[in-house]
């Protein structure tokens, strides 16, 4: 079995890093100013999770747990996260179906919409 669990989320987070370096990304950082920790399980929430931090205070994306307390933490399965980020699944529906779990500020969670993600050219 391969050591790196090539998640679809990895590619999305790479695009997010590039996006945050653009003017549109800098506007986002100014507008939102929150820190999100995202836990992604390949097949099941809470199992073999990879953790990412989308820091919209500093405008960066990192892999690994946030040092400190994020404004909001989300847990997803890889496919569900990609669906929400691409705008194919409504975040509220994902939450109601149990496809997304939220810890922390609900007002911060409501600002985490598919709009913050770059629109993929090809993915």
From TrEMBL:
Residue stretches spanning the membrane: none
Residue ranges constituting the SCP2 domain according to the UniProt record: 21-113
Pfam families in the record: SCP2
Cellular component GO terms, alphabetical: cytosol
The protein's name in its UniProt record: SCP2 domain-containing protein
Organism expressing this protein natively: Aristolochia fimbriata (White veined hardy Dutchman's pipe vine)
